[in-house]
Design a protein that fits this description.
It is a single chain. Helices cover 29% and strands 16% of the residues. Strands 1-3-2 form a three-stranded antiparallel beta sheet, with helices on one face.
């Protein structure tokens, strides 16, 4: 995964949520799999399990 991820400005609320959705990265942050740098930038953990990413997108 990339060093930093820049999320979109606004969530589109589609299902499943896209990979750049701010809601998805907020959920990953709460699980301890990402760290927030600024309002729209996140640093992902070394290895985010596919299942955790899939669950965050629901």
């Amino acid at each position: 995964m990339a060093d930093t991820v820049t999320v979109k400005k606004k969530c589109c609320k589609s299902g499943p949520r896209c990979k750049k959705c701010p809601v998805v990265w907020k959920r990953l942050e709460l699980q301890g799999l990402a760290e927030r740098q600024s309002k729209r930038k996140y640093v992902p953990a070394d290895d985010i399990p596919k299942k955790a990413f899939k669950d965050a997108r629901r």
